[in-house]
């Protein structure tokens, strides 16, 4: 392992310790609280600002990069970085926190799978498929995408309640 690889691993481990340890950092707790409130159709936090979602998205990318560095070095706890990145993506996927309609649920699902949490990954895929099949807004997926994707989802995932 080169010196720069060792330095990157040290930095990745520090990032994991500060952002993906057993305690939820205050900025992530705030995101979780905002997600919980808007998911329950309640008003969001008064202290929540639009830039915070972008910052948490940046945090998830940093954690994912740290996880890949750790995994490449056979670090045993790389899954902690990836799991926390997936949690952030999952919480940011709520439509009121994701005005750009980024595919954050799908990304979170992929990262959960990489982190070794296949049940959480599958749960998000099922949730996302049900939103595709029973959309609240018809503009989410339309045209050629829905013509190919929806039949695949119908074949793969049962309708909610089945």
Question: Could you give the topology of this structure?
Answer:
Blueprint: H1 3-19, H2 26-39, H3 50-72, H4 78-92, H5 104-115, H6 118-133, H7 144-156
Question: What do you see in this structure?
Answer:
The protein is built from 7 helices and no strands. It is mainly α and 162 residues long. It has 2 domains: 114 residues; 41 residues, no CATH class. α5 packs antiparallel against α6. The chain is globular and about 50 Å long. 29% of the residues are buried.
Measure the end-to-end span.
51 Å
- Which class best fits the helix and strand makeup? mainly alpha
> Number of helical segments?
7
What's the total number of strands? 0
Strand content is under 5%
Helix content: 55-70%
Compressed to H and E, one letter per element, the order equals HHHHHHH
Largest beta-sheet characterization: none
Shape: globular
List low-confidence stretches.
136-162
Write a brief caption for the model.
The chain is mostly helical and 162 residues long. Helix content is 68%, strand content 0%.
Summarize this structure as a short list of keywords or feature phrases.
162 residues; mainly alpha; 2 domains; 7 helices; globular; disordered C terminus
């Amino acid at each position: 392992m080169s010196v720069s690889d060792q330095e990157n691993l040290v930095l990745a481990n520090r990032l994991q310790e500060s952002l993906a340890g057993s305690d939820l950092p205050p900025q992530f707790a705030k995101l979780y609280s905002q997600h919980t409130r808007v998911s329950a159709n309640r008003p969001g936090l008064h202290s929540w600002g639009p830039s915070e979602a972008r910052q948490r998205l940046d945090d998830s990318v940093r954690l994912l990069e740290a996880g890949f560095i750790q995994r490449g070095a056979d670090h045993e706890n790389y899954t902690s970085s990836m799991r926390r990145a997936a949690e952030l993506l999952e919480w940011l996927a709520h439509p009121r926190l994701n005005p750009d309609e980024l595919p954050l649920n799908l990304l979170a699902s992929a990262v959960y799978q990489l982190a070794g949490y296949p049940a959480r990954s599958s749960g998000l895929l099922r949730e996302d498929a049900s939103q595709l099949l029973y959309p609240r807004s018809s503009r989410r997926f339309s045209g050629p995408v829905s013509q190919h994707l929806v039949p695949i989802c119908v074949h793969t995932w049962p309708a909610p309640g089945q």
